[in-house]
Amino acid sequence: MLKSHQIRSLATAAKKKATPKKPVNSRARTIKNLNFENKSLYGAVIKKPAAAGDPPEATNNSEISSEIFWLLQKKKDSSTSQNVTPTKLIPFNNTELRSIPNFPLLTSTSGILENRWTRHLQFENEQCKSPSVNKILSATMPEPARQALLKWKAAKIALLGEDGFTELQKATLERGSNFHSCLESWLNMESPGEDKLRKADKLWTSIEPLLEKVSRPAKIVERKVYHPFLHYNGVVDCVSCIDNQLHIIEWKTSENQKTNLSGTYDAPLQLCAYLGALKAESELSDLDVTKGAVLVAYTDGKPAHIHSIDQTKLKRYWAAWLRRLQEYWIRYRDDNLPDPI
To answer: What is the pTM (predicted TM-score) of this model?
Structure first.
């Protein structure tokens, strides 16, 4: 019995020894080698947990590519960074560029920021013009959103033709401009006039009930602002009181219902960018703006929606805006901005 067991054990060992190893799939080996090389160059992917209640823009960027992290955290090495050699002048040194995500929404009164950051005295110069908030958000739009917009544009052109699509864009722009003009007059305690109200039509019907909540005259109406440290510009729609609290207000128009803040896409980031610029201007820094609001009027005349943004959300959207701003300047420097849609 013992002899039989020994024979079986020897046979099993011989079989295992004789069993050939399975060949490694060449495609799998290639991927494995590439992953190893990428990790050696850039390090592991950095994952940042999203806080509860983070805006969609923040959570979409919660996983940062290791290459971008490497570009921002390490000095460029000529042996490994040939593809990221700067080709354009930007208004930030390397330290400032890395520090953009840490810039506070409310500037300090002690002069610390002035000592650490370059203060730009003008936003238009021959070397490097400041981009608008709209331009930055458009250039850094998440790829799924960009593809969806391109698909929509292609479908409209197929339906209307090139000339028809151009006319649609023109009509949309004129409608929005007229709507803002009516609001500007109303907020300044002036009559918009019958002609403007007729052109605003259902948009005014949509927004008029909500205007009872907005105090007049407004503190700021359609004012161009510039951030002297972060070098961008934009136009603030309105700063006024809603329910006795000072708000920065962004007016939007839509054909579709926007029942929640996330449905307004980049509007909260846009609003926070303007608020940051307001707070960075010395003559406007004393404005005690504690909240934000996105008011959406509808082209079919349905009641408008008001979406409030408290201080906690303002800080989160500000952080999301700073990431987009940093991405813009990195891509601008490397001449890697996408074509306008």
So the answer is: 0.73
